[in-house]
Amino acid sequence: MKSLFAYKKATQAVNFFARKEGGKISKMKALKLIFFADRYHFRKYGRLITSDKYFAMEHGPVPSSTKHLVDMNEAQHRLGRDYAERFVQPLSSSELQSISDVETKVLSKTDLEALEFAWSKFGRMTAGSLRNLTHSYPEWEKRKRQLLQGPKKAVKIDLLDFLEEPAGGADPCSAVDDRRRTAIREFVQQTQSVEKILY
């Protein structure tokens, strides 16, 4: 689905997890927790918190614009970086620290619900354990061969894969019955059809 990246929500999601972690968090852990929060929100409410585009990469599914944001990549999103710098700052190439309270007004009630879910379910895990866990989700698993056998370092994820169930008994991040799955799938497909005409 074509949508503007919600850089304020992405920033506050990172900030939320950094605060929960005690004020600092590894970038990888933050990105994995955002994946789980986005997955929960999409399955339950039919949209991502961040409006980001996801790619399968070596370390699992990655919200691409959020990754550029936490890397403080000015070339990718100057406005987002300027906003993010008011709330989080890099401690190193792999770790961030929170420098201001979470600006909850930019997050909806359901956004906060999804962030709380991700933290309560996965927050005690290490970045490496989260990385390994995300490899059991269809968002990554379906693109594993392309990543491991080809020259590509990133393969775009189809948003509808968030509706599929993970392997090995991993938490799906909100149960979805067939009726709800069909409704979300139809909405996404209709939106994508309209976007092809308009864009």
Can you give the helix content as a percent range?
Answer: 40-55%
Strand order of the largest sheet: 1-5-4
Radius of gyration: 16 Å
Number of domains: 1
Distance between the termini: 11 Å
Main beta sheet, described?
3 strands, antiparallel
Q: What sequence of helices (H) and strands (E) makes up the elements?
A: HEHEEHHEEHHHHEH
Count of β-strands: 6
Number of helices: 9
Care to describe what's here?
Helices cover 50% and strands 10% of the residues. It has a 3-stranded antiparallel sheet. The N and C termini lie close together (11 Å). α1 packs across α2 and α2 packs across α5. It has one domain. The chain is mainly alpha-helical and 199 residues long.
Give short descriptive properties of this protein.
single chain, 199 residues, mainly alpha, 9 helices
Please specify the SSE layout and strand pairing.
Elements: H1 7-20, E1 24-26, H2 27-45, E2 54-57, E3 60-63, H3 64-70, H4 78-84, E4 88-90, E5 95-98, H5 109-122, H6 127-134, H7 138-141, H8 144-149, E6 155-156, H9 178-198
Antiparallel strand pairs: 1-5, 2-3, 2-6, 4-5
Helix pairs in contact: 1-2, 1-3, 1-4, 2-5, 2-6
Please give a quick description of this structure:
This protein has 199 residues and is mostly helical. The chain has 9 helices and 6 strands, in the order αβαββααββααααβα.
